[in-house]
Amino acid sequence: IRYLTGFTGSNAALLVHSGDTPGAEERTVIATDGRYRVQIGRQVPDLRAEIVRAVTRRLVELACEWQFGRVGNESHVVTVDQYRAFEELGTGLQLVATPGLVEQLRMVKDDYEIDRLRAACAVGDEALAALLADGALRPGRTERQVARDLEWAMFERGAEAIAFETIVAAGANSAVPHHRPTEAVLATGDFVKIDFGAVVGGYHSDMTRTFVLGRAADWQRETYELVLQAQRAGREALGPGVPVADVDAAAREVIDAAGHGSLFVHGLGHGVGLRIHEAPGIAKTGTGTLQSGVAVTVEPGVYFPGRG
Asked: Which pLDDT score is estimated for 111?
């Protein structure tokens, strides 16, 4: 809804009329509740707005009233109970599943969106640099302390929100891909993985950085270099028309060749934009090809359980 209209409230539904018949423009309607009466008038002045609590129900009623016939629904987010209610209410409507329709449009970013993504990345870069310059990443501190310091540094540099729950994972915890920060204390010799991002203008950044506290052991240097080589291979494989599965394979083959394929336990990357995880998914099971203007992450990993 934000992508199509600019509305940023937390409760809304949108009915888009796709025809070119007289009056079609008036039959594209956004609905929200009374909390957003002023906001919707300011953000979406060019659309008819319905102010009701049951936003989706009201749009189904209008579709029936206007005898739309075929009505698409975002089946990947509509619950079974909601769908049954639509069927009961929308007698005469043909409900058609349209999963991922808007998400496919959102894959390709325009210049404005790319500027917002660059700004969000810059906030993350600057915040991490400040964290390091302040000596905040050191033995004796807890994962939670480092995470909170990094988040505050992002807010100080213009982030309107954090992109997702910040991950700071030290020692054995760094082998858990989506570890949540705890009171675990950083120690000399630890791998410390930091996965974080900022939101600027609604757009998200996503970056992962791995450090060693003190002098790195040989196995840590070797693993770090291996992941770097895999990431480079994945980045070099990117290009318009390239199947997303081929990009994943390019990075995965590097780790496989080193004998650690079973320790690369997730897909290579994903699209990023108004949400932190967007289409396309770059993985072995990914489908489709990359298009020009798509923004994706490339983030391979090797995880030794209980070690780092």
From this structure: 97
Q: How far apart are CA 225 and CA 239, in angstroms?
A: 24
**DSSP class per residue in 207-245:** EEEEEESSSPPHHHHHHHHHHHHHHHHHHHH--TT-BHH
Query: Measured in whole angstroms, how far is the alpha carbon of residue 188 from the centre of its chain?
Result: 33
Contact status, residue 282 vs residue 247, Cβ threshold 8 Å: yes
**Six-digit token string for 272:** 């990023």
Residue 23 has what pLDDT? 67
Instruction: Note the Cα 129 to chain centre separation in Å.
Output: 23
The dihedral region occupied by 189, where left means phi > 0, alpha psi between -120 and 50, and beta the remainder, is left
CA angle (129 as vertex; 294, 193 as ends), nearest 5: 70
Print burial letters for 270-279: b (CB count within 10 Å at least 16), e (below 16): bbbbbbbebb
Span 93-145, pLDDT tens digits: 899 999 999 999 999 999 999 999 999 999 999 999 999 999 999 999 999 99
Q: Decide if 229 contacts 194 (C-beta within 8 A).
A: no
Nearest to 177 by CA among 302, 16, 15: 302
Strand-pair category, 12-15 with 94-97: unpaired
Quickly count: other Cβ atoms within 10 Å of residue 75's Cβ: 14
Kindly provide the b/e burial profile for residues 220-232, where b requires at least 16 CB atoms within 10 angstroms of the residue's own CB.
Answer: beebbebbebbbe
Backbone angles phi, psi at 254, to 5 degrees: -65, -45
Bridge partner residues of 97 (DSSP): 73
d(CA 92, CA 230): 54
| Nearest to 7, CA basis, from 203, 198, 202, 163 | 202
pLDDT at 220: 97
Instruction: Please give the backbone phi and psi of residue 5, each rounded to the nearest 5 degrees, phi first.
Output: -125, -25
Question: What would the pLDDT profile of 170-219 be if each residue is shown by its tens digit?
Answer: 999 999 999 999 999 999 999 999 999 999 999 999 999 999 999 999 99
pLDDT tier at 73, thresholds 50, 70, 90: very high
